[in-house]
Amino acid sequence: MSNKAAGALTAKAKAMFGKRIRPEDYQAMLQKKTVAEVASYLKNDTYFNEVLAGINEKSIHRGQLEALIRQDLFQRFSSLMRYANSSKGGFYRYGIIENEIHQILNCIRSFESRDYMQFIEKMPTYLELQTSFKISDLAKVRTYDELLDVISHTDYAQIVRQFKPLHMEDFDFTGCESALRNYYFDTVLKIIESDFSGKEKEDLRDIFLTQIELENITKIYRLKKYFDTPSDRIKELISPVHLRFSKKDLDYIIDHCNADELFDYLAKSAYKNYTDNQRFIYIEYHTKKINYNINRKHLAFSNNPNIVLLSYMLLSETEVQNIVDIIEGIRYRIAPEKIERLLIY
Amino acid sequence: MSITKMKLVSISASEGNYEEMLKRCETSKYLHAENATSIVNEENGGRLLSIENIYSDYVNTLKNIGHSIGFEMKAKPTLEKTYTNEEIETFLKNVEEQFKVVSDSVESNSLTGDDEIALETLRLLDFTAMHDCHYISFGMGRLPIESVKKLNLIQDAKFITAKLHQTSQYQWIVYATSNTYARETKKMFDGLYLEEIKIPTIDSKKIIAQYEEELTNVYTYCEERNRLYSLHQYVSIFEDHYVVVGFVPEKDLDKFKTEFNGVDVSVDAHNTSDAPNLTPPTLLKNNWFFRPFEMFVTMYSLPAYRDMDPTVFVGITYCFLFGIMFGDLGQGFLLLLGGLFLEWKSKNKLAGIVGRVGITSMIFGFLFGSVFGNEEILIPVHRGLFNVHEKLINVMDGNFTMTLLISAVVIGAVLILITMVMNMAMHLKHKDWGELFFSQNGLAGFAFYGYLFVAIAGQFVFGFNILTPMWMIPFIGLPIVLFFFKEPLSHLIQGKSIKPHGGWGNFVLETFFEVFEILLSFVTNSMSYLRVGGFVLSHAGMMLVVMTLVEMTGNAGPVVFVIGNLFVMALEGLIVGIQTLRLEYYEMFSRYFEGGGKKFNLISSDN
């Protein structure tokens, strides 16, 4: 990437972040009584005005509103990519890979439950031109073999094939999901390893490894708290990477801590500077908040276009999730203060 | 160039003819009617015409019906049918019942323009027929474009769809399915975020078409009756006579009388002084050149009927002051052309003023030797015409600056003296002796200010000195005393007690500051005219900058020349226009103009 393009991307991404939803916007949305009012606020008072320009906010469907906001995230990514270097295109596919995995897992769920419509409803067809297989073909899949046919020419086929069950009721969904997530992280880390160097490589690794590690923590917590999963099984399901936790730390948590003790451990760990002791809600809130703070730091202090782009996109994802939480909270008449506790900003 | 002379008229008719009389009054091109409440009083035994206006309710009901079904009520130009109140009541009841069904089914308030387009396409299928189907269910609505793509992904679809309309975000579709799959299909479309629009149970357009003619006829009738009833406010009843009293321009009286030909009414004309309790309306009358300046006068206040119309004076002084401040032959010519063209095209009075000030701008531009900022082009002409070395008036000459500024103050002083004379003439007409003799804008003020003007001119220009006690006592001392004792002296002339309202102590204190303020205002008002000279310099300075830029920019010079001239014309023209208006209002109007007139309004303009 030329210096000019790098500067443009950095400036553009930082300027776009400057237009983010502010705490006062969240407060204003939390005071709304209906989804239509939130839609109207987003359309008239935030930077989502462009993507929501043609909508009829009075009657817009909640799902449609969420879909448009997610679509806007992808469009922002695409618009920033215009400034990015094509030689590093492999790295920028991280978002697409994540989405592809998500669609494969959703497809399996759909033919497992025979609820094909829900899968179609949520399918991001706007990604079709970017994906390595035709995601719309997944809509026609009714069996495991048909799925393997659709993704046969991709790396996913080999992973998914390993989990092919004799009967769908025996399917190891968690295992398959973990394997695909591991593939995602492996792929991205390999690209970082080969395409980048120096401080840039170090920062990109920091961002992704933090994500993996916090995902591991979440997984451990949930497996312990809700499924009472044995330690050996937990170790199989988590990604074998470490950043701020050593392998010894992680093994200690898995072997000796219960779900609540895990929080204490996290609060005293190297993540302590990024945690939010004021608002302890649930494990995802905690891990996402840590991730959010780390990305805010990267965005504020880095001038490297790849770091800025990546941290901007991850922060934007958090923002989109906040809006979705508000919309759903209002739809299901949850008290504003309860919704507010879920928001990360 | 004055205020139109009026005649007081009274038009009277019998009970059987008064409606026809009102109809003629309503269409009259000359009548300004007076409200009956100002005519009728206990002494003259008159009464008001008071009949409940039921047609106002009918009109509102019809408009509400129209609004709820999306039909615009419009009266026909001529009345085709008349109705009794019973007929109207029955008709309204009938349509209200019928259209209530329609408005319920249309839900017109919640539909967008695009929804209407989609419904219009769907109308081809016949709404009633769709609802009458026993085995097929229909649905329609807005489907997000993203969801439209997904329709093709659904295998074994149990429905068919048709596109009705599309925008960048949505496609409006209608779908049909068998009753067996209706619920499943609806759920599926919900999942695809279909925003459903209810298919109307009946076709409102058909019903509207059926009632349109009669609705319009009834509305036309009610509207006309309502209008006529609203004119009852002008009718007073004296015994059996229904009378409308008003004012008509004296010159149009005969034409006004002919408007009532063929109707059994009597039209009597009187002098305006015959009804001292009625204030005649003011209708300004000016020629083509000065008519646009009426706008400036009425913006301030309309002159009273018995006052003087200052439009001509405003026109002359406005053009004169603007011309001096915006003196440029070329730019003035453009103002003249542009202003007159816009006046002709749009009848805009401001454009008319722009056109007229263009003339004086050209005259002073010629005297200043300035054409589109070029200060040399007219030098040969000036040499030939005025036998001068360079130009007759060279505003950019440093030696001329002081002369220019003093001239501006002299112009201001002359205008102040003229406005004082106008003020005195006005008070003489009204026999308001106190204001005429003792006020700062009356004789005392004129003597004081005029003396100072002559004395200063004599001292510095003509070489005589009248700044001596012999002159100062009657022309400075005496006027100040008169300013001071204006209130008690006025009371004395009017034969009232000379003791001031708030007592002597309070009077002395208040009047001391008032007189101080009067003396100060003579100075500040005169200085205010310095701006005239200031803007001459400012205009010339701005054009100098433009011409310098033209020289600097080489080949792009002509473009800079045009843009620079247009820029200066727009900016300077606006500023000078506003400043001149300020001088008119603050320095001149405040000295002689009171306003407070009543506008001449044709009775027809009420409706």
TrEMBL record, chain A:
Superkingdom per UniProt: Bacteria
MF annotations from Gene Ontology: proton-transporting ATPase activity, rotational mechanism
Entry keyword set: Ion transport, Transport
InterPro entries on file: ATPase_csu/dsu_sf, ATPase_V0-cplx_csu/dsu, V-ATPase_V0D/AC39_subunit, V-type_ATPase_csu/dsu_dom_3
Entries under PANTHER family matching the protein: V-TYPE ATP SYNTHASE SUBUNIT C
Protein name, UniProt field: V/A-type H+-transporting ATPase subunit C
UniProtKB/TrEMBL annotation, chain B:
Gene Ontology BP annotations: vacuolar acidification
MF terms in GO: ATPase binding; proton-transporting ATPase activity, rotational mechanism
Pfam families noted in UniProt: V_ATPase_I (PF01496)
Topology with respect to the bilayer: Multi-pass membrane protein
Transmembrane segments: 312-341, 353-373, 400-422, 443-462, 468-485, 529-550, 556-581
Keywords for this protein: Ion transport, Membrane, Transmembrane, Transmembrane helix, Transport
InterPro entries in the cross-refs: V-ATPase_116kDa_su
Subcellular location: Membrane
Record's GO cellular component terms: proton-transporting V-type ATPase, V0 domain; vacuolar proton-transporting V-type ATPase complex
Family: Belongs to the V-ATPase 116 kDa subunit family.
Protein name, entry field: V/A-type H+-transporting ATPase subunit I
